[in-house]
Structure to design on (841 residues):
């Protein structure tokens, strides 16, 4: 056996999946590390909100419109709730709802998109044309209309945004899967007699995963911005549930008095969007071209 | 023509030095490092001289060819050396100076004409573009000249063909139109980068003849890049053999063909000598009877095709692109159910549709594809790729499966360390071996090989062909070998099926098909295969003109 052979074995067995992931993380650029740190911090806040907040989500903790103080770091809002606590709870609500929405939209759009690309034919045509129609209507206006029709509950918010968003996921999943489905290795699997689930899960999905994961991050940003925008307009997440969009809306007049209150939830929105984009950028750069090191 | 007179002044004397490259080094950037591509090469080219660059892929032929224009591909840089074109140093020339030279005094003919023409514009517009833009002639003169060139290149309907769009002419015609485009400014130097590689042999002859005639007529110097020795023998006065960015050998064409001095050059020559003894087989494993096949019922791609494939033998199906040879394979595998006729396997009718065939039938007929890059899932390791058929058909699992995978790797002459590799971590030849192992893993009776060596370098081709022959001896597997390359057919086949426009022209033993008397099409096909004789093209054209 050649020495090369020994080397490869040794290197391969030495590194576990965790070590590989760690090596990958260490090689990430500063922006990606910053993004990941910010996201981790947000997730931490979202999960441990009840533990780390000094006051409750809807608890009236002091007088209205107080400035920053040791008791209320970010001051209080128009009815005396602690802004810091509400920003932290807002992370929980906004991120949680956005995450759930994107998961549902990927479940709908991803599954239908891949199925359409593999089967082609009439179903593909029908789905694609429906998607074309839905995509031709601006999301925000369409969402506003549907929310007024179906009521302003959190669940209708989630489902409406998920369905509207799944059109974009459908397009991406269908197109990427289509370019993989025509490759010889898929034909080889078909000739072998493989069933549809194997072809989709083992041959196609691994090859379209990187763009889909990247899209997941970007769609998350868009959904979460849309939710904030809807909340700001008053049809999104309803009070007293804390949410960044509605917090900006409630305190927006304070900006004319030179008070920083509306900027705090707005900054929370902006920071998360930037952080997710940093990470997605790095991930896309890393996975464009199939140069995995394992 | 006025511009021609102006150009043909005293300086343009045949034999005067035109290009002088000295100590050229080029590096390419990948994986955060600069890697050498060209490691110090010299090249001199006189006016009216054609030099051929040959070597396997990655030898640096195209990079050197482009460097003669003062161009490097994005991500590459010239790190040392000089490129002198007619007294002008190109490595230090500004973009503006280079732009003036490119198209007007140096032009480039690429491998794929269909990818190089803009599909949205008519041929004429694209052919005269450089002449007009460089101010060599006005539009009317350029168009008249282009028609003249079309005529010289023997394009059909030279007066009207310029009005067509690129998709309205054939591949060979497009390649000639591209040569016309390159000639439109009467350049001093043309770089031909594998201009006939994508063409069928019958078309290749016409394109080669047209290019050679026009280069001779205008005393143009040319660099002809190819990996096909027989082609370069027809075109070049002098041949340079490159490998890994170094010069292996350089000599006049005739001297080089007669007596290559370096071992590497000799191995290139030797590849064409591989040959298997034919043998006859009477036990028919697959018989295709009067099969018609068409895509969506519109175009008949298979027309009353009858082929017998004897067990344990190699049947080669040859023909040009569009002859229906790949469609025949699709009909046998069930991907394209025939619209008429029967295909029987071991004496029983094969269900026409793939979905109607049982797993054991599927196992017995396996397929190997032309491009291992697309035939292997880039996200699966060799263990999964080869292991899956053993699991799927033969029910092997766990350690038994791994053992079988290692056995198969040994059978294709790769060691067990490959088991954890992804396709991206292997060379083209290794990937094709993995494809072969995947087919073998099913323990099939018949393997359909669809152009399996076409994408490989000659030396790798020979290794793969040898491997296939050895595997046939060991496992008695039957091959249906689809190819357009007559040299490959000569090497490995027992029987040959010649196809043309969806019909079978001839089927018979290798010795019968490759020796006279020939049907007309077989003769055309065989006589179009370039030979290693530098006079081959000249003699062939004379013979055809006389006939």
């Amino acid at each position: 056996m050649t020495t090369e052979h020994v080397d490869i074995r040794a290197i391969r067995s030495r590194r576990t999946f965790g070590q590989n992931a760690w090596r990958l993380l260490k090689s990430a650029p500063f922006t990606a590390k910053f993004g990941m740190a910010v996201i981790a911090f947000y997730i931490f806040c979202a999960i441990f909100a009840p533990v780390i907040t000094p006051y409750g989500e809807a608890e009236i903790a002091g007088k209205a419109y107080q400035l920053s103080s040791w008791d209320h770091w970010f001051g209080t809002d128009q009815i005396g709730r602690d802004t810091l606590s509400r920003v932290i709870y807002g992370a929980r609500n906004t991120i949680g709802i956005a995450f759930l929405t994107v998961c549902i939209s990927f479940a709908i759009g991803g599954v239908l998109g891949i199925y359409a690309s593999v089967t082609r034919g009439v179903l593909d045509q029908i789905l694609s044309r429906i998607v074309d129609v839905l995509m031709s209507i601006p999301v925000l206006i369409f969402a506003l209309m549907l929310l007024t029709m179906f009521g302003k509950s959190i669940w209708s918010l989630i489902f409406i945004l998920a369905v509207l968003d799944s059109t974009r996921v459908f397009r991406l999943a269908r197109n990427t899967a289509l370019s993989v489905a025509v490759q010889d290795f898929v034909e080889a699997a078909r000739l072998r007699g493989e069933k549809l689930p194997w072809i989709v899960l083992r041959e196609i999905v691994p090859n379209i995963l990187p763009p889909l994961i990247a899209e997941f991050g970007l769609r998350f940003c868009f959904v979460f911005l849309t939710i904030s925008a809807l909340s700001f307009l008053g049809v999104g997440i309803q009070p007293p549930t804390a949410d960044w969009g509605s917090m900006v809306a409630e305190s927006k007049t304070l900006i004319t008095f030179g008070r920083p209150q509306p900027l705090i939830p707005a900054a929370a929105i902006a920071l998360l969007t930037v952080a997710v984009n940093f990470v997605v950028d790095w991930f896309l750069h890393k996975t464009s071209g199939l140069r995995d090191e394992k | 023509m006025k511009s021609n007179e102006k150009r043909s002044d005293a300086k343009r004397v045949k034999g005067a030095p035109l290009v002088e490259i000295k100590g050229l080094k080029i590096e390419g950037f990948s994986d955060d490092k600069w890697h050498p591509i060209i490691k110090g090469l010299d090249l001199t080219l006189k006016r009216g001289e054609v030099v051929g660059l040959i070597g396997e892929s990655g030898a640096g032929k195209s990079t050197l060819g482009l460097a003669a224009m003062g161009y490097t591909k994005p991500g590459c840089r010239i790190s040392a050396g000089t490129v002198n074109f007619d007294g002008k140093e190109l490595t230090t020339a500004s973009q503006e100076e280079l732009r003036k030279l490119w198209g007007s005094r140096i032009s480039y003919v690429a491998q794929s004409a269909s990818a190089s023409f803009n599909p949205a514009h008519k041929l004429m517009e694209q052919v005269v573009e450089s002449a007009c833009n460089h101010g060599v002639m006005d539009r009317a003169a350029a168009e008249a000249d282009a028609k003249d060139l079309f005529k010289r290149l023997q394009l059909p309907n030279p007066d009207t063909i310029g009005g067509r769009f690129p998709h309205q002419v054939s591949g060979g015609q497009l390649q000639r139109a591209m040569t016309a485009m390159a000639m439109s400014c009467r350049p001093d130097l043309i770089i031909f980068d594998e201009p006939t590689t994508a063409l069928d042999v019958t078309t290749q002859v016409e394109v080669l003849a047209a290019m050679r005639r026009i280069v001779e007529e205008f005393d143009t110097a040319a660099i002809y890049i190819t990996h096909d020795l027989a082609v370069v023998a027809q075109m070049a006065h002098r041949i340079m053999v490159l490998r890994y960015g170094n010069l292996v050998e350089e000599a006049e064409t005739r001297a080089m063909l007669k007596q290559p001095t370096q071992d590497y050059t000799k191995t290139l020559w030797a590849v064409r000598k591989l040959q298997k003894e034919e043998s006859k087989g009477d036990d028919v494993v697959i018989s295709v009877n009067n099969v018609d096949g068409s895509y969506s019922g519109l175009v008949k791609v298979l027309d009353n095709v009858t082929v017998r494939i004897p067990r344990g033998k190699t049947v080669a199906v040859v023909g040009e692109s569009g002859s229906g040879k790949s469609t025949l394979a699709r009909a046998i595998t069930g991907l394209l159910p025939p619209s008429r006729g029967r295909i029987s396997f071991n004496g029983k009718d094969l269900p026409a549709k793939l979905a109607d065939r049982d797993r054991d039938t599927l196992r017995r007929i396996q397929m190997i594809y032309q491009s291992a890059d697309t035939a292997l899932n880039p996200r699966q390791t060799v263990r999964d790729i080869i292991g899956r058929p053993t699991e799927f058909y033969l029910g092997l699992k766990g350690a038994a499966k791994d053992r079988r995978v290692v056995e198969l790797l040994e059978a294709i002459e790769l060691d067990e360390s490959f088991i954890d590799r992804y396709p991206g971590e292997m060379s083209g030849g290794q990937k094709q071996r993995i494809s072969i192992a995947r087919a073998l893993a099913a323990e099939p009776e018949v393997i359909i090989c669809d152009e399996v060596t076409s994408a490989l370098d000659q030396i790798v081709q020979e290794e793969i062909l040898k491997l296939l022959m050895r595997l046939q001896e060991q496992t008695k597997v039957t091959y249906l070998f689809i190819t357009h390359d007559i040299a490959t057919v000569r090497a490995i086949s027992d029987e040959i099926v010649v196809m043309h426009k969806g019909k079978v022209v001839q089927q018979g033993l290798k010795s019968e098909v490759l020796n006279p008397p020939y049907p007309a099409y077989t003769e055309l096909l065989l006589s179009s295969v370039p030979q290693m004789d530098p006079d081959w093209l000249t003699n062939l054209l004379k013979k055809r003109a006389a006939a």
About this structure: The radius of gyration of chain A is 23 Å.
